[in-house]
Amino acid sequence: MTHNWCKIIRCRLGIKITCGVSKRSMLGLLILLVLSFWLSVSYAQEPKSSDETDGCLSCHASVTPGIVADWQNSFHAKQSPAEAVKKEKLMRRVSADSIPEYLAMTTVGCAECHTLNQEKHNDTFAHNGFQVHTVVTPEDCATCHPIEKTQYEKNIMSYAHIILTNNPVYHSLITSINGIQDFDGTKTSLEDPDELTNFESCLYCHGTEVMVQGMLTRETALGEMEFPILSGWPNQGVGRLNPDGSMGSCAACHTRHQFSIQMARKPYTCSECHKGPDVPAYKVYQVSKHGNIFFSVGKNWEFESVPWVVGRDFTAPTCAACHVSLIVTPEDDITAQRTHQMNDRLWWRILGVIYAHPHPKSPNTAIIQNKAGLPLPTELSGEPVSEYLIDEDEMLRRKETMKTVCLSCHSTQWVDNQFARFENTIKTTNEMTLTATKILSTAWDKGAAQGLPQGADLFDEAIEKKWVEQWLFFANSTRYASAMAGADYGVFANGRWYMSKNIQEMVDWLQFKLKDKDKRE
Amino acid sequence: MTHNWCKIIRCRLGIKITCGVSKRSMLGLLILLVLSFWLSVSYAQEPKSSDETDGCLSCHASVTPGIVADWQNSFHAKQSPAEAVKKEKLMRRVSADSIPEYLAMTTVGCAECHTLNQEKHNDTFAHNGFQVHTVVTPEDCATCHPIEKTQYEKNIMSYAHIILTNNPVYHSLITSINGIQDFDGTKTSLEDPDELTNFESCLYCHGTEVMVQGMLTRETALGEMEFPILSGWPNQGVGRLNPDGSMGSCAACHTRHQFSIQMARKPYTCSECHKGPDVPAYKVYQVSKHGNIFFSVGKNWEFESVPWVVGRDFTAPTCAACHVSLIVTPEDDITAQRTHQMNDRLWWRILGVIYAHPHPKSPNTAIIQNKAGLPLPTELSGEPVSEYLIDEDEMLRRKETMKTVCLSCHSTQWVDNQFARFENTIKTTNEMTLTATKILSTAWDKGAAQGLPQGADLFDEAIEKKWVEQWLFFANSTRYASAMAGADYGVFANGRWYMSKNIQEMVDWLQFKLKDKDKRE
Amino acid sequence: MTHNWCKIIRCRLGIKITCGVSKRSMLGLLILLVLSFWLSVSYAQEPKSSDETDGCLSCHASVTPGIVADWQNSFHAKQSPAEAVKKEKLMRRVSADSIPEYLAMTTVGCAECHTLNQEKHNDTFAHNGFQVHTVVTPEDCATCHPIEKTQYEKNIMSYAHIILTNNPVYHSLITSINGIQDFDGTKTSLEDPDELTNFESCLYCHGTEVMVQGMLTRETALGEMEFPILSGWPNQGVGRLNPDGSMGSCAACHTRHQFSIQMARKPYTCSECHKGPDVPAYKVYQVSKHGNIFFSVGKNWEFESVPWVVGRDFTAPTCAACHVSLIVTPEDDITAQRTHQMNDRLWWRILGVIYAHPHPKSPNTAIIQNKAGLPLPTELSGEPVSEYLIDEDEMLRRKETMKTVCLSCHSTQWVDNQFARFENTIKTTNEMTLTATKILSTAWDKGAAQGLPQGADLFDEAIEKKWVEQWLFFANSTRYASAMAGADYGVFANGRWYMSKNIQEMVDWLQFKLKDKDKRE
Q1: pLDDT digits over C66-86, tens only?
Q2: Minimal C-alpha gap between B186 and chain A (Å)
Q3: What span, in angstroms and rounded, lies between the C-alpha atoms of A310 and A326?
Q4: What are residue A137's phi and psi, to 5 degrees?
Q5: Sign of CA dihedral B470, B473, B474, B475
Q6: Mutate to test the interface with B, among A173, A191, A201 (most CBs of B within 10 A)
Q7: Looking at the complex, does the CB of residue B467 fall below 8 Å from at least one CB of chain C?
Q8: ipTM metric
Q9: Residue B275 to residue C488, Cβ atoms within 8 A
Q10: The model's pTM
Q11: C209, C163 in Cβ contact below 8 A?
């Protein structure tokens, strides 16, 4: 019983109570309970959910209690768009100037999102008298949050699926990783991966294409029902191709069904996709001073307030603070505008590419072609394919935007020196990648491995995989460690130590192979 | 002084107070203090500790203050078994129908556990007028928690020590890892590891055999005392062999001396043994959506309530939610029964084995023998040794039990598709292991390495160790990433990238070796 | 508005309030607000910041709001040294017997630290009427905390920069890692790393030398200003060489500008430098029982109290509890004295060295020379260079100091057996390193690699890098896992598995190389 009382009180009064087991505290709680009851009846009405949503909840509260509870804890369940749109500019969470009338006065519940834009949704189906769709998309969210959607479309993330599947180089990288290899006693063969494998690996983060493959009928607790068969589902990848033709998934960061700004602002969300050796942002953050402060004292920070006040709400940046959030000073001066085009504050592209290079102009990098005819933003020598990349002015502009955030806590010299180190590391990591590329090219040229000159796969042999690790893991990790000042990660964990060792191992391999070859010839 | 007052108030009233340093808050605290004092005297008595336990505490409160404080914070110190047994079925934490009379009315203190079943305990010794034993065992805990003990005996974990030491294949794996290697200028030799090494490595998690090796007399603060000499101690491994003949250690998860359900429900506990590349459950959880939710908002969840209410107490699963806990809906409908036979909701065995296969029928897998005479649940080709493994009906039953948990938040199609991906990954990872096995077999057959055909060690050479990594690390990690939807871990962190690269490196090695051999011949 | 009220109340009253969004709680908050206002006016004055500091704040509150907020949350902003020095001995945070009069009565603000010891600071410059310096040093902090500074000078960490740069062996290790390699089609070459690379990698933790390189004039919001140009800045490395001639940075652990004991006591701080495979203390802690307890229930511990009471303030150790903090029992008996000479409780040196050995006598290990003339504390055979190392009596003394901490929760036998395992692991890991060294020596002797006998670099070739991993990563990680009982890390994560595999790979390499060589000859 104690526990239930605790919850009620906590919920009503907003006071955090540790629900201990001691019965002695019961009487104290009783007093608070009476007080809170009086408060709750004496205060004005909150907005209500729509009748349609109430219809959904009547079953789903017991069918899927977890997500219903999540929604009940969300802003969507507590405020109407009409109220939300009236807030002062800095405090607004909705970016629409006006809200469609039929959505304005109730809270934002099941029906409001899952029946929006019915006609656009291939996945719309009849469900207990409603025309609902499973996959809520950025297009749907844009009804109230249009600016975020527009910005996100310029974010390279929104093209994450397309970039991977439309670029033949990346496509061949996927095959070399996810494909099934066999061995016939002498050599290996490689088969294309099946789509279920791709769904749960690369496309988990990059996004699947969700398509309706027909309908199926299923016996449910409420009798027989019909549902669309969705391929590529479930998925919340950042570049998901949706059944309404839109790209992306807001739920990738604003996890359903709390859609919480708190979660999006915490680094755990980013770590879902940015932790592995190919994008070790979270691991670098963990050993940075910023990460140390967040993990040590961040539990007392305010993660829900809009705008986000540096110094008052938080005292060290999370991922969102540097890359996304609207940041203001305690005097409400704007430090950084909210952006969902994350590269708005990024001038170098440091991950997933052979050489770091200025950010691409278009988020669709699959359109880039280098002089050698490969769909890559640099030549194999590292030279950037400038026509597709932002120029120095734009790089400077983005750098200055980021610098403003840093200056909230650091001196100009501090920041300038930090950035100088980063620029230097862009240069040295590219040099170390070039060295590895020279070794691989020699192997290709002398026939020790089969690659570009032979028109063969670039990624399927052991020496090629070592080359991939040089840039995809080690150079990249070193750059992240530099950018975010997480030194510990960039030396021995996955950085310079391995860059240096890998080159020596590639040379050793080449020497073994060539001597072997010499002798056979 | 402030701090002490704070603690008293917090303790009495159950209100969480942040004990700040500002003196301005002192007067406020004083008011609360008076209020709480009044509350504490006006409320009924709590159960008391036994006289025997008071005897223990009289010294140990100052000798080992840490564990005494832990116990004081525990349920054991706050409730008598007599009260505990009276609760409604769903809310009960003890599973015994009745409690021995002499234990019923006091709290569960030092003496209650450490003097139980004296006659069964080889480690019982005279200590200040009591017959106490150091090692409290599942048999002791079963006095109040018999169902948990019975279930746990069917859990493969309870045989973790036996499986490792009685299975010659695993025994030889341990030797190859923990043994001391020497080099004579030409080749290496391998010596058996000493037992202290095994205690702190494999057996730390798998459990040691704790045996009494004699008695020793030691000078203490209270004069000369005699204690049993325990080998294999300390240890809280899941398959510990205890001095009373029982197996396992409840303290492995219910950490002494809080024995807290909170700790057992948090993933940190599981991570003690399930984080390394051989069982990366925790690392996969960290990058899963479930983990993201837990780390972001789990600090507000209720981890002590029984039963555990999905949606109200927690909104995303921890390890315990899927694998152990009694889960109910907010309407108290049972979603999943509590089980300490963790494989009750597991249909595939995916870890620590060459090929994933249906779960074994008996928790003692050391009894299994394949056609080749090896104590393994599959042939070297991957074919399962079906007579020892659960059949499809039982697999389906376990899958359905797990599915019920998932359906608390997810649609049927969501869950079915997730499971389909997992089944597919079982298949593909087994195929990739088979390819590695073919390469190794070729090496053995052609004498490039010494293994099964030569009756030699399977694990001591470099190429064999690469083969072990293929299944023990990479295939296994890929399966975990699939099962728990932690994609980031299963691609580049320790999954498909390495499966694919490892095969190429094995083939390279084989070619170097064979050419080398050819030339010598 | 709700949020602002919440904060005011939380701040004044010290009661932790979860600032929910529900408007129903507003009235309740209003009542609390009135109460808190009354409390705040009726209570006595707090100490004030100095006029000089107020001058700093008048600009910096808006220029760098993040660090100003940090400082406002700190003890330094809430108490005057005069009050701090009056506390009872056990509760004191300042170790000075007396405080200079001009500093005693105000809080410790910007001006107090950044204008101290002006004459000693090369980096002192005129700034808005003050003579300030950027880099606050241990010498500055010693004004109030002299004992900590004196102890820290005996800490090997204070020499972390010097050890790395003055020891030619370590210097060459850095070059081999951070240097730029090139490939000419046949072999690689190695260039010295630039200093920006060293600043952000090794020296980030070890500390840079911060030097004034001149002055620069910059346009600021307040007009043109002049600042010193600092090389090696920013840096908070533990062995930083400061512009006042002192060594170290208190902010390495007591992160500016909260300088919080809470942060220094939490393991996240140590993890900034002690997480990589070369010093995996944090990773081992994470999978230890101690770590499990901290992560599961540590959020309720008291991290700010001085002294730190075992059992009451915390129930499992963090890094600081074992290695630094003043620990007392609930009866105020001293368990361990505070020490900033961290090796005060350490008898073996287990990290960053080829072989584990008794701790060095002097924190400046660059003075050590072995029989072979190398600046190493052991011979290449593992034999310790005893004259520079502490003797058995001192080892025993340190071990006993540590043991006292362990005994707060564990029995004597528990601790003795734990230590016996550790001693055994020192021995076995040294043996495995010796085996790897024998293989490398054979490679050197037979000309398969170029090293000591050839007067060549010890670290630049692939086989040498494998040897380095044997001791710097694998043996070392195994020792950490043993010392702190984090078994999971010491087997498969980065421990015995790799020690054993690495030796086999080294032998394979040697055989390939020698046969290759034979055939050429």
Answers
A1: 999 999 999 999 999 999 999
A2: 20
A3: 10
A4: -120, 165
A5: positive
A6: A201
A7: no
A8: 0.91
A9: yes
A10: 0.92
A11: no
